[in-house]
Amino acid sequence: MSDFFQFLISGIAVGSIYALAALGFVLIYKSSRVINFAHGQFIAIGAFAAYALATWAKLPFWLAALLAILATAFLGFAVEKIFLKRMVGQPIISVIMVTIGLASVLDGLMYLTPFGSGNFSYPAFLPQEPLRLAGITISYPQLLAIGFTALFLLLFGWFFQRSTLGISMRAVADDQMASMSVGVSVERVFALAWAVAGLTAAAAGIVVGTVSGLNQDGLIGIGLAVFPAVILGGLDSIPGAVVGGVTIGVLQQLAAGYLNQYVPGGGTEYVLPFVVLLVMLWFKPYGLFGIEEIERV
């Protein structure tokens, strides 16, 4: 039984990272109906920016992480202003192709930096000895992942319920034309959504780097790995991103613990999330918490 709880705790920690990364997808889709295929690159840029500031500029890690998160948020803001703003009114497939092209460009640019190949790790800033309670072990990086996600959820909850900008974003997500008619700046909301998505992507990247080290391909892969979590929870649901992320993380750990021994070669934890994705697209394409849109033709 202790094995089950160990897998459960590990799954919640991994799922918290997925939830953080999935929030960026959901925010952009919820406000502009665009799926950002460059999200994995944002995750990698935020993680390596924190590494550069902590090791090259010798900044305290917490300050380096904060500056990296703010810098990636500005990058998201700039990307929307430079590339996406010009695509307003264009077919959605054209906008999606822009994000795919942007992902390729950012990918190539990162390979030109010293971080393009090889593995790196942040300076040690957390206790190395894990916590042990009733036979269950949890490391401090895992606690960091869970704590970071809880903190961001509280901040987002306050932001969307209490702040003027958050209420504007909800209004734009519900009806852009109605929002514009009452004076809400849709352009500002779009730019804000991309900035917040960059912020959450950098936070997810820093947590991944703390838990498992820094590798460009691995960090970019997180952007693809969260797709099942986003589809499971619902593309337009912030609570769904969290539920989907944690669910996928727990399923992966349970699969690794209980199924790999019966499958030659193992690896069921990498396959199971995409099985879930296919099942959801088949039976409930709007996810557990997404809004089902009905169009008359």
TrEMBL record:
One Gene Ontology biological process: amino acid transport
UniProt keyword list: Amino-acid transport, Cell membrane, Membrane, Transmembrane, Transmembrane helix, Transport
TM ranges: 6-27, 34-53, 59-79, 91-113, 133-160, 189-212, 271-291
Membrane topology: Multi-pass membrane protein
Main location (coarse class): membrane
GO molecular function: transmembrane transporter activity
CDD domains per UniProt: TM_PBP1_LivH_like (cd06582)
One GO cellular component term noted in the UniProt record for this chain: plasma membrane
Compartments, as annotated in UniProt: Cell membrane
Pfam families cross-referenced by the UniProt entry: BPD_transp_2
Family according to the record: Belongs to the binding-protein-dependent transport system permease family. LivHM subfamily.
PANTHER family: ABC TRANSPORTER PERMEASE PROTEIN, BRANCHED-CHAIN AMINO ACID TRANSPORT SYSTEM PERMEASE PROTEIN LIVH
Name listed for the protein in its UniProt record: Inner-membrane translocator
